Amino acid sequence: ATFNNPFLQAKAILRSFIAHNISVPWKAFFNPDIDQELLDLIKKTNGEDVIRFTIESGSNQMLNTLQKGFTTEYIERAIQLCKKNNMKFAFTIMFGAPGETIETVKETCDFIAKHQPDHVSAGFGVFIYPQTTLARQTKNTLWQDESELLFSKHVPFEREIFKPLIENSLAKAGVDFIIYDEMEYLNQKVM
Asked: How confident is the model at residue 191 (pLDDT cuts 50, 70, 90)?
């Protein structure tokens, strides 16, 4: 979930903070649907010093597959607004959705290198949950009966190929990053 979705509600919440003199540190995740007024409200309410964008990918093909509702050009406008306001920004990325390829991974890594976010949190492994867009997209290809989704069904992803590519690309770009591998976590939890 992202704080600024719905957009007008996010602004209303922050205006309420101001109206009631609420001044507590707070953090949130954002989609790139931001404007100058929202950034001003964030600053006035003791909000985040880093705007964390849940972009999921730097590839327009993957953004479309994930039905994010925005493109890389839209993300770039948000980045420019942050830079104009001297605000740090970070990305959360999700590798391994249906249709992910070496090319789309490279596009995302190149996008990150180009824009130099202050931090990147990336996840490997996309889990399929019942009654979601991803479940509808993968029905009959990755699962047949919804009961299969109760046991951590994930989209197949060639970690041994992609993980070194991503780690090397982000390290070469000089970006601060952390990678979470959901399947490694699950394997450790089971043991």
From this structure: very low
Mean pLDDT of 97-103: 91
Give the chain's length. Answer: 191
Q: Would you say 51 and 21 are in contact if contact means Cβ atoms under 8 Å apart?
A: no
pLDDT, average across residues 64-89: 95
Q: Do 28 and 2 contact (CB within 8 A), yes or no? A: yes
Integer Cα distance of 124 and 108 in angstroms: 13
Contact of 94 with 56, CB cutoff 8 Å:
yes
Give bridge partners of residue 118 from the DSSP assignment.
Answer: none
Mean pLDDT of 40-47: 88
Q: Count Cβ atoms within 10 A of the Cβ of residue 91 and give its class: 0-12 exposed, 13-18 middle, 19 or more buried.
A: buried
70 close to 63: Cβ distance less than 8 angstroms:
yes
Output the DSSP codes for 35-50. -HHHHHHHHHTT--SE
Residue 178 pLDDT > 90, yes or no? yes
Cα distances from 15 to residues 19, 23, 48, 148, in angstroms, run 6, 12, 16, 44
